[in-house]
Fold this protein.
Amino acid sequence: MTEFKRKKASKKELIIQKASAMFREKGFPATSMRDLADEVGIEAASLYNHIQSKSEILQEIIYRTANDCNIHLDNLDVAQLNSIEKLESLIRFHVQMMIHQFDDYTVMINEWIHLSEPYQTNFITQRRIYVQRMENIIQQGIDHQEIKTVLPYIAMLTILSSVRGLEFWHRSEKHVSPQVIEDNMVAFLINGLKK
Amino acid sequence: MTEFKRKKASKKELIIQKASAMFREKGFPATSMRDLADEVGIEAASLYNHIQSKSEILQEIIYRTANDCNIHLDNLDVAQLNSIEKLESLIRFHVQMMIHQFDDYTVMINEWIHLSEPYQTNFITQRRIYVQRMENIIQQGIDHQEIKTVLPYIAMLTILSSVRGLEFWHRSEKHVSPQVIEDNMVAFLINGLKK
DNA sequence: CCTACCGATCGGTAGG
DNA sequence: CCTACCGATCGGTAGG
C-alpha cells in the first residue's frame, strides 16, 4: 500500500517535471495534454490517474516555487545580517533558482496569468507581500546609511528583473558560466546600491 | 479606390491594435479570433477580409516594433555622442517604448516564441545582432575608460531586463509616475556603469 | 461584412 | 494504463 502510493507519487512528479519543461518552453496554453502524455510515455487519458486537471499541474508548479521563495525570505528575516548582506543573499538565491530550477521558476514568472481563480488572486497577493518585504529590506539599508538613496521600488524591480533576464542567457549558447553570471550580477547590482 | 484602400487599412490597424492588447494580456495562444472579433465589433469570419491569418497579426506587431528599435540604434550609431550618452539614449528609448507602446513592445518580448517559421528564426537573428551592437557600445565605453570594467554581456542583459521589468509596474496601480520611473531607472543603471 | 459550416484539436470521462 | 469517445472550441473557408 505504501509502496503503491510512493510509486504513484513519483509518477506524478515525473508528469509535473515534464510539464514544467514544456510550459516553460511553449507556454501553458500552447502545451497540450497529448504532447505531455507523449513526453511521459503514456496515453493522454492515463495522465488523469495521477493528476486531476491541466490547471492543477500549473498550480503545483507555481505554488511550490513561490513557497521556496517565501521560505528563503523567512530565514533571511531572522538572520544576523546587515542590509547589504541580506540583499546579496536575495540576489544569489534568485539567480540560483533561475539556474538550478529554471523550468519551475520561469513558469512561475511567466505563466501565473494562466492560473485559474482563486489561485491567481492568491498568487498575486503573495507576490505583493513578497516584493513589499524586499522593499522593506532596501529601505532599512537606506535608513542605516548602508545603501544609496534610491527608490526601493525601483531597486526591487531592477533586481528581480535582472534575474528574470537570465532566461535569455539560459536559452543562449552559454559562453558565460553560471558562476560568472552569478558573481557579476551580484557585483553589478550591489555596487549600484552600496553607498 | 484610394479612399477604399485607406478605409481597409485603418480597419486592419484597428484589428492589429486590439490584437496587440489581447496578446499582451493573455498571450498569443490563449487569444481566440472570436474574442478578437468581439473586441473589434464584427464576426470572426469578417476578420479575414482584413488580415490573412492569426499568425500574420503577430508577425506585423513584432516586426514593426523590432524595426522601431533598429531605426533608433541606426540613428545612434551616427550620432556624435560618447558611450555613456549613447547608453542613456538607449535606456530612455526602451523605457519609453515600454511606457508608450506597451502592448506592442511586450508582445515582441514575450510572444516571439509563437512566431511561425521562417519568422521566428529571422527574429532571433535580428535580436542577436541588436544585442551585439549594444554590447559593442558598452565595450567602446570601457575601452575609452568612460565605463567601469564590466562584462558587456551582463550590462546589456541587466539594462534590457530592467526595462522589461516595467511590465510589472505597468500592471500595478502606478503609484510612481512614468517620468520618475524613467529618470530613476536611468540614474540607477548609468550610475552602476560610470567610472 | 454576415450566415453557415468545415476538419482538427482541445481537456477530460466512461468503462474495463 | 488503455480504447473509445464526448462536447466544446479552435483557425479558417465558401458563398452570398
Remarks:
- The mean pLDDT of chain B is 91.
- Residues 32-34, 44-45, 47-48, 53-54 of chain B lie near DNA strand D (CB under 10 Å from a C1').
- The CA atoms of residues 7 and 73 of chain B lie 33 Å apart.
- Chain B has two domains: 1-51, 54-193.
